[in-house]
Amino acid sequence: MSMPAGWYDDGSGRQRWWDGARWTDDYAPAHAATGPQAAPVTPAPAARVAPVLGFVGLGLAVLGTVLACIPATFGVGAFVLVAAFVVSLIGLFRKGAPKWPSIIGMILSVVGGAIGAIVLIASLLANATDPVGPAPTGTSSTSTTQPSDSPTTDASDARPSPDQLGETILADLQRSGMHQYDDDPEWVACWGQYVYDSDLSDEALQEYVTTMDVQGEERELMGSVSAEATVSCSTQ
Questions:
Q1: What contacts 36, CB < 8 A, 6 or more positions away?
Q2: Model pTM?
């Protein structure tokens, strides 16, 4: 009579599967229980790790998207979105951690950058089609006639005051459809003072007050100073 199928010692000290007619090539682990139908021990699942990097990357992606959608802070927002993408990518390869926060962070980084770029391009196109723009709030659109016996002085050569600069950025934001600073006079005053104290020339600031834009060599500097002023005044 043939032995029933099961795990048996094949004479070498190891447990081997007997299928009822012959030995198979299946061996039981050395620590497995002996006897008929003893099965290999299944290893315990690995412990899961909290997706800290994934949530950090996701948070940075949300912050970067908000900043990138404001033309004045697009540069800062783009930098934050790049950092969010890198952190999320690292979190994606973290062993044992859930992947969904990192995946969402990476997707939001790309989408946020695209939306911010669209908003910035739309703002630039709007400025290009309307180079003069509306007069800043609180300023007069009429020019003052100087007496004929006084020295000729061009008012456009003077450096605009912090109040003029603050009123201009507020009008610029309102024209772009952003009203989050309408009821925040402290931020407006801080922004105007910060730009007034910058290295921008009187001509560049006068051009910004007049056209809400700066052309030429100081255009990039204006964007950088504006972004720094926005971040600095928002944290005060």
A1: 4, 6, 7, 8
A2: 0.37
